[in-house]
Amino acid sequence: MRHLVAHRKLGRTSSHRKALLRNLCASLVEHERIITTLPKAKELRPFAEHVITLGRRARKARQDGRNETALHLTRQAAAYFFSGNSNWDSKQHNPQAGRTGGVAAVQKVTGELAERFAERSGGYTRILKLGRRKGDGAEIALIEFVGSEDKKPVEEKPAAKESKK
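^ that's the sequence the OP posted. Answer follows.
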């Protein structure tokens, strides 16, 4: 029996699984729709929806003048992404350099996405099954934010091909 077993392991260690979900979530927030395997999409959905909820709550707290609460909620949302600028401690640090995926994702979650889903109480994502992958037969799915139907999906990179002997 599977009592108290909550999530899929996805064939990875816990740290690798957490890194995978963080990267998938950052890609989903940046591009608003991605193509990946069905089990990864199903694991990503609650992960991404909780980030959006934190972003909505941070935006509402900021509007109500509760800046400490907004900062706390923004930092909680930032914990779902890898953060920081690349080479932040180098001597050649450029303050105008582009943000890394995590920083840009947090800004988008607490800004644009929080505004878009302000009136929605949940169900920010949808999963569409796309069939099976030709190489290994894995089920492929498209996961997207509701309301992003006009954007082009970003596909997951295929695994390295085996060399012929």
